[in-house]
Amino acid sequence: FSFKKNKKPTTSILTTQPDHDILKEISLKVHEPALQKQINMIGLTTNDLVLTLKLRPYIQANIEEIVNTFYASFALEQGLIDIINSYSSIDRLKLTLKKHILESFNGRFTDEDVSRIRRIAHIHVKIGLEAKWYMAAFQPLLVSVIKTVEPHLTTKEEIVEAVQSVTKIFNLEQQIVLE
Ligand code: HEM
After folding, report:
1. Predicted ipTM?
2. Looking at residue 1, what is its pLDDT?
3. How much of the chain exceeds pLDDT 70, in percent?
4. SS3 state at 106
5. What does the alpha-carbon distance between residue 140 and residue 173 come to, in Å, rounded to a whole number?
6. CA nearest ligand 1 atom 28, residue
7. One-character DSSP codes across 112-128
8. Rounded Cα distance, 54 and 176, in Å
9. How far is it, in rounded angstroms, from Cα 55 to Cα 52?
10. Beta carbons within 8 Å of 127's beta carbon, 6+ residues apart
11. Ligand 1 pocket: which of 127, 170, 178 to mutate (most atoms <8 Å of CB)?
12. Which residues contact 60 (CB under 8 A, 6 or more apart)?
């Protein structure tokens, strides 16, 4: 018998069996042999997709702040602001980035996602964005995603698993963009 109050939640989102609704969303189907090897090399499996889908509601709840932090990081390099102002606007990009981030957490990684990411890569090539800035921009994005989900996780193991799954999906996106 315990009078302890404010106990941390004991149910882990990692060990809780995904229910049918979650499992039917999950799909890891990429047909290009080279990409299949790259996926195997980083150890991305459907377990990672289940986990990132479980994290999605937290990302969605904080998406405004995540994209604000992302674009705030550009302020240090005027060249990036100039690129945005000549091709688009921060407000427009915030909308497309929100959509893109939520799509990355939808439990799927298929040929369609590969094409979508290649389209985004192509846009960045067209606007003359150097790869180093693209890579630099990913870091504050990753950090705000980690900060967003961490309070909802209960154990150290769970946090490590979540960080691994998120970095795997981001890493795969980077591989496709930089190819
Ligand atoms: C477009 C994501 C880095 C500038 C886009 C789009 C997405 C995206 C999803 C929309 C594509 C579409 O219209 O379908 C990302 C991600 C980045 C990144 C995930 C890195 C983590 C950057 C950086 C700049 C930038 C560092 C700095 C200049 C732009 C511009 C467009 C664009 C100007 C719009 C181009 C146009 O509308 O023609 N990006 N981006 N992006 N991005 Fe990025």
Report:
1. 0.96
2. 52
3. 93
4. coil
5. 16
6. 80
7. HHHHHHHHHHHHHHHTT
8. 24
9. 5
10. 83, 87
11. 127
12. 102
Q: Check pocket membership of 134 for ligand 1, CB cut-off 6 A.
A: yes
Mean pLDDT across the stretch 100-119?
Answer: 98
β-strands 27-29, 108-110: how paired?
parallel
Q: How far, in Å, is the centroid of ligand 1 from the Cα of 90?
A: 10
- By C-alpha distance, which of 175, 170, 173 is closest to 145? 170
Looking at residue 10, what is its pLDDT?
Answer: 58
* 21 Cα to the center of ligand 1, angstroms: 32
Task: Compute, in angstroms, the gap from residue 30 CA to the centroid of ligand 1.
Answer: 24
Tell me the whole-structure pTM to 2 decimals.
0.92
- For ligand 1, atom 12, which residue shows the shortest CA distance? 120
DSSP 8-state secondary structure symbol assigned to residue 155:
S
Tens-digit pLDDT profile for residues 23-53: 899 999 999 999 999 999 999 999 999 999 9
CA 151 from centre of chain = 17
